[in-house]
């Protein structure tokens, strides 16, 4: 690594930011290619490149293909400018990654964790792990330029604090940013909702690459949605956008923990699938689920229902399809409203597989307008359980610099 | 008017476009104010102003308030650069406006029209009316820089053509742009869905001014939604965004003209209100509606139901409230997803008034998450039936120039 970038020197002009974004997106480019893509004059591009080179943000690479004349010099992101770290806090897991400034992941770490712990303890553990990963690379904590952190709860983005998080009440109003800054003095700390972070991961490094408008739906204990709108994560006016688990799908449905009746989440997410699987096991409707229940000490999970469905169990299959229909029915409304090009399905429950996806697709196609589904694809998240930590790296990279005008 | 701006000279640099946008938004500014707001250097601003002045796009105005030293020169949009026209085509009406390049409306015209007419006839009439309005101002058709057109149907925005429009089948694939260009050779022609145009009107000149994320819901014969996202109109991947009238609110509901059951539109829009009003009149449930029906030659309208509700009729009131509850229930889902700061309600059915609005508000507050309604306001559109034609003017102004990187 080169000398650490001064924290006071964290601004880019709009032109510099656009060159950096293009190099991230499309890889090494020549001066002429940059000028053409960004429609800047050669003189303008030359000045921008000079500045970025002087600050060590980009570097000279080898020569590119000749376009008729001399082979042109290529420029690329300087991965050795510093480190960025990604932290993905799940309900029961802590996922960490260390990357260079070019986004290339250098180290990964995953360990069990309990989100009910005090934030000081959990974040202290994360900070320690990041420090150890850096040490292994011969670096130091001051070389961390930015840290992105995904948390399973609603986040007030500008402040980097959680707001009334049902899973982690001890974190309410705790300044994650302040805590982490004490350990990483040169790092910009950015905190976001886990689903937003996953959507960012897919946008930069997954199936959302190059797609301006798409949704990332996480189905687990709850159901949430990350929204990429015009190539940017969209957080809404209070940072509450994407809270689709509490969209009502049945006014006469069961009461949700939020106090309303018939929320999608209470009717179709993991616990609902498990509860209906338990019912089918206990009632004798499914011998296979009854056997699975007995083998798992009387605990039923959504995954067990999915496995039984895969093995051909009729009752389990109907439970999975019913959940998919409910989720797809809600998504059909979002498709009419938002007209996305892609919907990615992730989260633990997505491991149930193709039966669930198929039911979701059918419900969306049946209930959306023809025009809004013309180019729509609905797929499982290709990054899967890595979407969070990869997204946290890119969230961090988005916030290394402040852009001036 | 000055000499018409050459159509070949219709590009702005990004910096020029940002200066122009700021002058539009905030009115006349000094060089120092522009530099400060846009965080450009004084030298940069001076160069941009010089270019814009030379092309007649902005003009020198008087002197502003002293900030301690000499009183500074102010700059503003040159309204006399040319004309823009706005055309709002409704199912039964044609609304037109002529404005200067500063967006100040010079002439207005509204006349009945039938959207089932051939496009050549209706657009020919609109073109003739624009020409006459310009003549009254001593101008000529070549001085029209841009025309914005709102149409009551789905639009493929890049092409400026309607796609499978249920109300106006004769317009399918008809090139509105080509037709209008023959009459206005120097004008950029932009066509958009009527609800998008209304949202644009509110964004520039109504209650949406300065609000980054808001929705405009039009309730009339159908129900549609214009989406302003990060200060821009959002059209989605196929231009189909905002088609919320076909979101399902009851899987066992009546079949809609789109072929699906229980669409919001078939259950809650104008015709549904009128049909339920007719039912209450005929069944003897409401004497007031029966009297109104007799007085209107056996034809019931949503407005008549609204009037009866206003006059205290119990049955009419319940019909209005029920419609508001259904619309609010759907909006609650959008609020959870999109977390807007404002929802504006417009369209003919909004004339029913406060009873409808109140029912909508109640349903949204009951069914949305607490965080997503923290800053939410739900109001009637202040521009009302003018939102379309005012929005068409601003749609035109947005497309006078092409912005170069």
Core attributes:
homodimer, 405 residues, alpha/beta, Arc Repressor Mutant, subunit A, Nucleotidyltransferase, domain 5, 3 domains, 5-stranded mixed beta sheet
Q: What is the topological layout?
A:
The structure is a homodimer of 405-residue chains.
Chain A: E1 11-13, H1 14-26, E2 29-30, H2 31-38, H3 42-54, E3 58-63, E4 73-77, E5 83-89, E6 93-100, E7 105-112, H4 119-136, E8 144-151, E9 155-156, E10 161-162, H5 176-183, E11 188-193, H6 194-205, E12 214-219, E13 223-229, E14 232-233, H7 264-268, H8 270-282, H9 287-295, H10 302-310, H11 314-338, E15 342-346, H12 354-367, E16 377-380, H13 387-398, E17 402-404
Parallel strand pairs in A: 1-17, 5-8, 8-11, 12-15, 15-16
Antiparallel strand pairs in A: 2-4, 3-4, 5-6, 6-7, 9-10, 12-13, 13-14
The biggest chain-chain interface is:
A-B, 55 and 54 residues
The structural class of chain A is: alpha/beta
Number of structural units classed as domains of chain A: 3
Mean of pLDDT of chain A? 93
Q: What's the CATH class of the largest domain in chain A, please?
A: Alpha Beta
Largest sheet of chain A at a glance? 5 strands, mixed
Oligomeric state of shown chains = homodimer
Spatial order of strands in the largest sheet of chain A: 7-6-5-8-11
Radius of gyration of chain A: 23 Å
Give the helix tally of chain A.
13
CATH fold group of the largest domain in chain A: Nucleotidyltransferase, domain 5
Beta fraction of the residues of chain A?
Answer: 15-25%
Helix content of chain A: 25-40%
CATH architectural arrangement of the largest domain in chain A: 2-Layer Sandwich
């Amino acid at each position: 690594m080169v000398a650490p970038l001064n924290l006071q020197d964290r601004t880019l002009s709009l032109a510099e930011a656009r060159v950096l974004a293009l190099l991230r997106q499309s890889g090494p480019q020549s001066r002429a290619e940059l000028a053409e893509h960004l429609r800047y004059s050669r003189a303008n591009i030359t000045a921008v490149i000079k500045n970025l080179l002087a600050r060590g943000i980009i570097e000279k690479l080898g020569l590119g293909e000749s376009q008729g004349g001399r082979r042109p010099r290529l420029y690329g992101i300087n991965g050795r400018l510093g480190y960025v770290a990604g932290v993905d806090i799940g309900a029961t897991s802590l996922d960490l990654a260390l990357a260079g400034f070019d986004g290339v992941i250098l180290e990964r770490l995953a360990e069990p964790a309990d989100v009910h712990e005090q934030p000081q303890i959990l974040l202290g553990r994360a900070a320690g792990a990041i420090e150890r990963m850096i040490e292994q690379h011969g670096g130091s904590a001051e070389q961390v330029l930015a840290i992105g952190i995904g948390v399973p709860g609603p986040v007030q983005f500008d402040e980097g604090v959680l707001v009334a998080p049902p899973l982690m009440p001890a974190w309410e109003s705790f300044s994650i940013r302040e805590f982490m800054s004490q350990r990483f003095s040169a790092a910009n700390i950015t905190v976001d909702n886990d689903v937003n972070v996953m959507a960012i991961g897919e946008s930069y490094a997954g199936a959302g690459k190059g797609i301006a408008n798409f949704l990332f739906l996480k189905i687990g204990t709850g159901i949430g949605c990350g929204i990429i709108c015009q190539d940017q994560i969209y957080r809404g006016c209070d940072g509450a956008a994407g809270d689709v688990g509490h969209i009502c799908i049945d006014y006469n449905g069961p009461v949700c923990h939020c106090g309303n009746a018939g929320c999608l989440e209470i009717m179709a997410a993991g616990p609902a699938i498990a509860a209906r699987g338990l019912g089918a096991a206990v009632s004798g409707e499914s011998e296979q689920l009854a056997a699975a229940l007995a083998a798992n000490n009387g605990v039923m999970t959504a995954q067990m229902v999915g496995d039984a469905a895969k093995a051909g169990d009729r009752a389990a299959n109907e439970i999975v399809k019913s959940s998919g229909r409910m989720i797809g029915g809600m998504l059909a409304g979002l498709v009419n409203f938002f007209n996305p090009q892609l919907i990615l399905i992730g989260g633990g429950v997505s491991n149930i597989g193709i039966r669930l996806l198929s039911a979701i697709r059918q419900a969306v196609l049946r209930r959306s307008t023809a025009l809004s589904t013309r180019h729509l694809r609905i797929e499982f998240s290709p990054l899967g359980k890595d979407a969070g930590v990869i997204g946290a790296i890119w969230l961090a990279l988005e916030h290394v610099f402040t852009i001036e005008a």
